[in-house]
Amino acid sequence: MISLLDMDIRVIIVYIYNQDISPEKSMGGSSPCASCKLLRRRCAKDCIFAPYFPSDDPHKFAIVHKVFGASNVGKMLQELPVHQRADAVSSLVYEANARVRDPVYGCVGAISYLQNQVSQLQMQLAVAQTEILCIQMQQESALPTQIPQDDKSLLLASTSNLDNISQYLNFASSGNVIQDPALKRESLWT
């Protein structure tokens, strides 16, 4: 249980963190944003890049600048309402990372890979559900029950057909799923 004193300390810490009290700001100077630092220009107070490309993460802007260009990104951000800019920057960073990793397909390649993996997993799920159904039907046929003669031949025919189907569908295993190690190793968001 959180005491009132602990809550007050957390509120103060959050307030200080949000105020961004740093030695540079308290001494009168401010660190330029990653954009201005990379482009070697003075960072103005109303710099459009400053809120989205902080100086402590220069790689984020560098990759966006390499793919889209600072001028294009600046124009794009100026055309957007302020509340949509953070999402736009996040998308630009994702797309730039994807484009650097895969210059031909970019993020479309990653999306295609994931869609392919989803369809393969859906196919494996269908195969597993079919196998479960086959096993259930085999167990039901093994139980001694009174079945009319006409139904027995129908049941035997369907059971043998299910055995054949399960043999054909036996190819599915976890090893059949294509797993691209490059996509697993690194996140496209950074």
Automatic annotation (TrEMBL):
Pfam families xrefs: LOB
Domain of life of the source: Eukaryota
GO biological process, one term: regulation of DNA-templated transcription
Gene Ontology MF term list: DNA-binding transcription activator activity
GO CC terms in record: nucleus
Domain (LOB) ranges: 31-132
Family per similarity comment: Belongs to the LOB domain-containing protein family.
Listed PANTHER family: LOB DOMAIN-CONTAINING PROTEIN 12-LIKE, LOB DOMAIN-CONTAINING PROTEIN 4-RELATED
The protein, known as: Lateral organ boundaries domain family protein
Species of the source: Theobroma cacao
Phylogenetic lineage: Eukaryota, Viridiplantae, Streptophyta, Embryophyta, Tracheophyta
